[in-house]
Design a protein that fits this description.
It is built from eleven helices and eight strands. It is mainly alpha-helical.
């Protein structure tokens, strides 16, 4: 069995393999139909993945506004990888011609590959051309590798480890039964329970009702942003109105709770003002 991490983005299901234990992590539902993201899920992923990227890029005093276009020259992507890995990537090309952009994106993709990740059907050209499906697939792969893969709870790893952590932490709470990363979080109580379990001073859980999902979601997201430095990554209105929230988006946001409460990601703490990539931005 290949010990690389595989992410297949052009088929119905995506497959992610933990390099250390070679256990498959497969999506439970068929999120991709005919090679296209569901529009509602695409909207959720745009918001969530943008917020997740910016939560790390702020360490370099840089932000993205449009996830579809801001990674096209490769510089933001290289900077993101430097911040979340704490490592230095090769010096980027300074030009802004197409071949410069492709060269920079390839440097980023080569770095991802060096971490045991294999991107299937995602090439530099697709990112440079602003292919949103491929761009979201690439960012999701980065999230899996750097924010989720190393989660370990009672011999469960990655997605299953994160889910088990949520189950254990929310088990004592009424009206919370975490079984997945979509419907189980739809009414907002699971988010509130996770916060209350670790910071009971921030939320009065007894005053919450499952009949007020929008209020619950806003409460959790507001408190997390104000007191825990976890940015809003999900839209409460979309969470309430959609039949099934996007699993990847919810998992990304929940992983931020895990890293806040259970352990920190190994990332650079100080602004990367000495990075050679920064010099390209500020020249």
């Amino acid at each position: 069995m290949n010990n690389s991490i595989n992410v297949i983005t052009n088929s119905v299901s995506k497959m992610y393999v933990n390099e250390d234990d070679a256990e498959y992590m497969e999506q439970e539902e068929e999120w991709v139909k005919d090679g296209l993201l569901d529009p509602a899920w695409e909207q959720q992923q745009r918001k969530t993945f943008t917020a997740w990227c910016n939560s790390h890029l702020r360490k370099a005093n840089i932000q993205i506004k449009n996830i579809e276009t801001d990674f096209r020259n490769g510089l933001m992507l290289m900077m993101l990888l430097e911040v979340i890995s704490g490592e230095t990537l090769p010096k980027p090309d300074k030009g802004d011609l197409r071949f410069h952009r492709i060269a920079n994106v390839n440097k980023a993709l080569d770095f991802i590959a060096s971490k045991g990740v294999r991107l299937v059907s995602i090439g530099a050209e697709e990112i440079v051309d602003g292919n949103i499906k491929m761009t979201l697939g690439m960012i999701w792969t980065i999230i899996l590798r750097f924010a989720i893969q190393d989660i370990s709870v009672e011999e469960m790893t990655a997605k299953e480890g994160l889910l088990l952590w949520c189950k254990r932490k929310t088990a004592p709470y009424r009206n919370v039964n975490v079984q997945n990363f979509h419907l189980s979080f739809k009414d907002g109580l699971a988010f509130c329970a996770l916060i209350h379990r670790h910071r009971p001073d921030l939320i009065d859980y007894d005053k919450l009702s499952k009949d007020n999902p929008l209020e619950n979601l806003n409460t959790a997201f507001d408190v997390a942003e104000k007191y825990l430095d976890i940015p809003r990554m999900l839209d409460p209105e979309v969470m309430c109105s959609t039949g099934m929230p996007d699993e990847n988006s919810v998992m990304t946001y929940v992983s931020s709770y895990y890293h806040t409460f259970a352990g920190k990601m190994k990332v650079t703490k100080e602004p990367l003002t000495t990075s050679c990539i920064c010099s390209v931005f500020y020249d």
